[in-house]
């Protein structure tokens, strides 16, 4: 969180924090990058994820129309268009503002998924956002237990890191099962 905030102004980066215990992430609640207060229950998290999923799909459509492969390229094109307009060149103007990166930090996803119906909804939305994340600039940082990790299809997520777990054997077995092992060279780490 500190690295992201240090490198980006609030004009470039927005942050969503979800912490069911309201302890670990609440120390960041006063940062100007924070979109709203720290989310602490699953219904609020579902509402925010619905909004972010809608935003991700809207961004993908805008990127498609502008023939940009990422929000960085879109923002570069937009900046170039604005520079050309300032220099007196005639261009069709975009009514778009530069897109901000959005980081979603969820501490202990397990506690947000205690209600099976809400948990399934949250996991499906996170999976969909993860699939669009690299293109549309909405990034996930999620912590979960090995128990939940075994229930979630972690192949849906772009990069997986398992750190400091009491269930290292279970996590390793999950990583080595099926085709997940063949993907380890594409961004996974296990400590």
How do the strands and helices of this protein lay out in sequence?
Elements: H1 2-7, E1 13-19, H2 42-65, H3 71-86, E2 101-107, H4 109-112, H5 116-136, E3 138-142, H6 146-151, E4 161-162, H7 168-176, E5 189-190
Parallel strand pairs: 1-2, 2-3, 4-5
Highlighted features:
single chain, 7 helices, globular, alpha/beta, 191 residues, two-stranded parallel sheet, 12% strand
Describe what this molecule looks like in 3D:
Helices cover 45% and strands 12% of the residues. It contains seven helices and five strands. The chain has 191 residues and is an alpha/beta fold. The strands form two sheets. A three-stranded parallel β-sheet has the order 1-2-3. A two-stranded parallel ribbon has the order 4-5. The chain is globular, with a radius of gyration of 19 Å.
């Amino acid at each position: 969180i500190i690295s992201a905030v240090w490198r980006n102004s609030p004009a470039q980066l927005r942050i969503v924090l979800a912490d069911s215990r309201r302890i670990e992430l609440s120390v960041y609640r006063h940062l100007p990058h924070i979109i709203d207060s720290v989310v602490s229950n699953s219904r609020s998290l579902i509402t925010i994820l619905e909004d972010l999923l809608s935003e991700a799909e809207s961004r993908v459509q805008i990127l498609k129309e502008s023939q940009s492969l990422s929000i960085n390229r879109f923002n570069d094109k937009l900046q170039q268009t604005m520079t050309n307009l300032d220099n007196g060149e005639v261009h069709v103007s975009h009514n778009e503002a530069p897109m901000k990166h959005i980081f979603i930090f969820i501490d202990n996803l397990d506690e947000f998924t205690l209600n099976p119906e809400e948990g399934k909804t949250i996991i499906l939305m996170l999976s969909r956002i993860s699939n669009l994340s690299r293109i549309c600039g909405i990034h996930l940082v999620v912590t979960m237990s090995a128990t939940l990790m075994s229930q979630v299809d972690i192949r849906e997520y772009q990069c997986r890191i398992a750190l400091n777990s009491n269930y290292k054997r279970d996590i390793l077995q999950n990583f080595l099962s099926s085709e997940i092992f063949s993907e380890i060279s594409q961004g996974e780490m296990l400590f």
